[in-house]
Amino acid sequence: MKMKYFHMKNQSVTGWGLIFERGTIMKKIALDALGSDKRPNPEILGAIKALRENDDILIYLIGKEEILHNKLRKFQYDTRRLKIINADQEVRMSESPTKALREKKNSSIKIGMDFLKKEADAFISAGNTGALMTHALMQIGRIKEIKRPAISTIIPTPYGETILIDSGANADAKPIHLLQFAIMGEIYAKIVFNKKNPKIGLLSNGEEEKKGNKLTKETNKLLKKHSKLNFIGNVEGRDILSGEVDVVVCDGFTGNIVLKTVESIFKFIFKIFKTEIANHLLAKIGLLLLKPSLKRLLKKMDYSEFGSAPLLGIKKPVLVAHGTSDEKAIKNSINFTYKYISEDFSKMLHEEIKDLDIDK
């Protein structure tokens, strides 16, 4: 397909953008190059790989320009579709989100959000989640009807996928917030996985209505009153990977612990499996026969296949990647974001929410 060039209106970005002759505008994805634990290598390599898989995206690496230029010289890539926007400061995982917002005016998160507000279609970061949330709220803003945005994480299971919301954006929450999380999670499940009537579960320490703390008990009552939701009641930790529930609702403090625990379980099982095979000759022989099936299973259970999770409730797409993301996870994060903005999920979510009496 032939392409023609146009100069970017935003003078802070030099170079040329691309537009398809048939009128399909390139999708612009801003990527925080100062986010992951091993920054900026995973971001650079992941971006280059994503460009090879998608011919209608522009990726903007937000980070220290000189370092990024020096590293990029070692690789072959489409220089017309991979750009750099300078950001001298990074927000470390240990930093206060509000302090970073106040004092670091040239951080990669701040610059990335500015670019998202003006021009980009989405912003991805594997950095400080609290800072990402704070900057998104202050610079982009939330959908009017939503009181608290939430991170919606896809957890792979042998039976499909389970959506966990909130997985880290709100350490403290009220029942009305969890009700809204459930509504956003339901809409997200419908849009992303084509679930016609997603089953919603409230995470608690028992299936009975009387189990749980004050938050879960009050939330349970609210969810039962919301007739449009397919609320199946309280669910326990063991139900998350069972395939019996599509959306698991909880506060961000609990959700983040659950998420990290599930990830560690996957890694633990894989490590034990490798050790057992290494110590037994018959197991090594059997592995040759099982290898194709095991590869499919491991791929299905690998969190990096999805790469990132959207911060639902924000006006424009902001996606949170894992701090430990490698190049594969970053590439898949970009691919997921590409699909997210291609289908205009944020607009669809906004329209669905507007039609709901979300406070009741």
UniProtKB/TrEMBL annotation:
SUPFAM superfamilies: Isocitrate/Isopropylmalate dehydrogenase-like (SSF53659)
Pathway: Lipid metabolism; phospholipid metabolism
Assigned GO CC terms: cytoplasm
UniProt-listed Enzyme Commission number(s): 2.3.1.274
Coiled coil: none
Localization of this protein: Cytoplasm
Keywords associated with the record: Acyltransferase, Cytoplasm, Lipid biosynthesis, Lipid metabolism, Phospholipid biosynthesis, Phospholipid metabolism, Transferase
The keyword Acyltransferase is assigned to this record: yes
Annotated InterPro entries: FA_synthesis, Phospholipid_synth_PlsX-like
GO biological process, one term: fatty acid biosynthetic process
Catalytic activity: a fatty acyl-[ACP] + phosphate = an acyl phosphate + holo-[ACP]
Superkingdom of origin organism: Bacteria
GO molecular function, one term: phosphate:acyl-[acyl carrier protein] acyltransferase activity
Function: Catalyzes the reversible formation of acyl-phosphate (acyl-PO(4)) from acyl-[acyl-carrier-protein] (acyl-ACP). This enzyme utilizes acyl-ACP as fatty acyl donor, but not acyl-CoA.
Subunit structure: Homodimer. Probably interacts with PlsY.
PANTHER family (UniProt xref): FATTY ACID/PHOSPHOLIPID SYNTHESIS PROTEIN PLSX (PTHR30100), PHOSPHATE ACYLTRANSFERASE (PTHR30100:SF1)
Similarity remark: Belongs to the PlsX family.
Protein's UniProt name: Phosphate acyltransferase
